[in-house]
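Please describe our next protein:
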Amino acid sequence: MTAVEIPGSKSITARALFLAAAAEGVTTLRRPLSSDDTEGFAQGLDTLGYRIERAEAAWRIEGRPAGPAVPDADVYCRDGATTARFLPTLAAAGHGTYRFDASAQMRRRPVAPLTRALRELGVDLRHEEAEGHHPLTVLADGVRGGELTLDAGQSSQYLTALLLLGPLTRDGLRITVTRLVSAPYIGITLAMMRSFGVEVKREPTPAGEVFDVPSGGYRAADYPIEPDASTASYFFAAAALAGREVTVPGLGRDALQGDLRFVDVLRRMGARVDVADDRTTVAGNGPLGGITVNMRDISDTMPTLAAIAPFATGPVRIEDVHNTRVKECDRLEACADNLRAMGVTVATGDDWIEIRPGTPRPVEIATHSDHRIVMSFAVTSLRAPGITFDDPGCVRKTFPGFHEAFAELRGAWGV
């Protein structure tokens, strides 16, 4: 058995930073992810005047329920979608003028459903160039709250940002959600809000699912960050593909992250999976079978499955993943194009990809500066030696040490 230490969850770290900044008191985050995305989020908080002390194993954040400490700021969000969507929402609850910009990659990604919702709540928010995209400026004067309807069919982050804002409003929020993608991420948000003292009521209605968020603010917490389940998917897939075994400590039955359900996909394909209280183990158990799977709720792991799909004994069809087209890149087409370059037969539709069994030849992977494309096709290289990447360093977004960790795993397995 090979144990792999996976760094902290990006999704949980970003939410924890928002909650800590908004809470009354000093919060300690234990084992937070240190990567380009989370460092960018922390730097953004620092620019807004929040006090953060960062050590290797823990970060301490002094909360400010009243909002940013400075009356104006210019925040650069880098490539981080959570930074670019959560920080303007946090700033809206304060008082001042706050401008937010991001990388060219992030500028292309939409924020319109969120910014429309903020405007409905009375926030003075202005897009400087393309409507619904960064850069944008928030002329903040607090948020009263109230009722709104949201389409979160493109990204669950829009809903998360508003849920996190709710306790900072004067009257609370009642959000009716007509569509929702990546629903497990909302479970993460609600569980974390509970840890910081806020209970959200959630109920289905004919108009959509309704979330009632009370006002009253957050309480500081001592909060541990669990390992990143999306990152763990590459190591689980590697074990299933290579006929080896890998264990990830810290991810078990009570994990918050829905992406741990990727191991259920591997189980359906024939891998042996054991999810214990405090760890998850995956072992290869012979050839992987073909599968048709809906990955709407775990779409960040779609590239992981696509990267090992050619080695299955039958076709692999992944459905209901339209939202992967508006991530760091169009991940659905990026996977298809790279697989085709390897000589694999691939078909795609608006929200699906089907991959036929084949023998991938080594190529230089076009990464589109997307960390998940790199880490996914690193798994392919276990059976297609010689694969290279045009931008291997983009893994710094979520796992700066990925290549070293993956090489260490290969060495331990002798593959």
Summary: The mean pLDDT is 97. The first strand starts at residue 2 and ends at 3. The CA atoms of residues 12 and 220 lie 16 Å apart. The two ends are 15 Å apart (CA to CA).
